[in-house]
Amino acid sequence: MKKILFAIVACCLAVNAAIAQVPSEITLSEDKPQEEIPISDNHQEHGRIFVRMIGEPDDQGNTSVRIELQNTSNDYCFLLCDHAWDKKELRKSFIYFDKGYYGETTQKIENIGMKGMPNIIEGNSDEKYTFPVVNVGEGTELQVRIPVHLVKPKPGLFCKKRKILYDVVSCTLRITVNTRDRVYENLQMECDSLFSAFNAALDRKEFCSNPKHDLSLEDQAVEYFDERQELESRVGEYFRSCSANSKKSIRYEALYDSVHNMKQKMEERLAQYKHDCGGHGPKVPTSCKYCTLSLEDISKQMVNLYFDLYNKDKTKAEVLPIANALYNCCINHKKQVRQWGTSEYKKTIEDNYKSIKNYRP
User: Which helix (H) or strand (E) holds 66?
Assistant: First the structure.
């Protein structure tokens, strides 16, 4: 019977120890720079551990993290040890094991550079014990183990410093720091993509600089300029929300300047841009291979060209020269000009021609 009772007690102790040692997953970020972890056993809380991110990452991506411990217990003092102190060593500091303590030594704190004699933290206090700062790299995990030994003062007749060690609560912290600014990364990507798309449009000769063109050169490129303005406004909002002189503020300020200066670069490139779509030549009674077609036939071909482009059956480089030739036939050649002004197909031809010219893949 005694063996059975002993086995039950041993199992209970093992379960309590396992519960006490369940690791706490801690992820710190700019939005959540601190977490609090309770120090408890058997559903009784004795204190709290505070884990806080300090400042911003260094050039190697390491972030400083401060760990603090507060004893809120009315019953126990906390004992922290830099290594496993045995009974003989502890007695020199007037600390004795209770009969119910089953260990032969204390347990040491791991992965924090703590040194010196056992540290006693008095109970029911607003003050916090601060450990040496640790560094956590982006994308890595730091596991810290803090065994909190529960002790009670037990003054003797000849020694009032004597304390009894009753139990240990082992707190394991798995700390990660997420300092990656995905908002900034996405904004930077949008900035680069917009300027690349604008330059690509110029290289593909998507715009017409002829003064006779229906839309001015600036109006043809207005979508790119509007998108740049909207992007500048969004970057500006994030920049104004940053703490002054922080690394994040400096980063967003540089991005804001980049988006702002993009306007001048786009204007300079547009000012140097020269391309005639070929639809504004002199109106002379010449003929072409499309003059034998009716405006209805030209309208059908223009519609088909746009659908070939839209469905990606053909590229803009393949479609645009044909569209230019068809449109020029309508407005320049004698046979077509007679009917062009009043033709029911005029609007269909013009709309599809503009869609082809302004098409962006």
Answer: strand 62-71
Alpha-carbon distance of 200 to 228, in angstroms, equals 16
CA atoms within 13 A on the CB side of 278: 15
Say whether 39 sits in a helix, a strand or coil: strand
Partners of 144 in the β-ladder: 173
- Report pLDDT for 34: 93
Is residue 273 within 8 A of residue 206, CB to CB? The reply is: no
One-letter-per-residue 3-state SS of 130-169: ECCCEEEECCCCEEEEEEEEEEEECCCCCCCCCEEEEEEE
What pLDDT does residue 18 have? 35
DSSP 233: H
198, 221 Cβ separation under 8 angstroms: yes
For 216, the token pair is: 């001015």
* pTM: predicted TM-score of the whole model, two decimal places: 0.55
Asked whether the CA dihedral 149, 153, 155, 161 is positive or negative, the reply is positive
Q: 186 Cβ partners below 8 Å, 6+ apart?
A: none
Q: What is the pLDDT of residues 141-172, one digit of tens each?
A: 999 999 999 999 886 666 667 889 999 999 99
pLDDT tens-digit readout, 2-51: 444 444 444 444 334 433 456 889 999 877 889 999 999 877 899 999 99
Which pairing describes strands 163-178 and 95-97: parallel, antiparallel, or unpaired? parallel
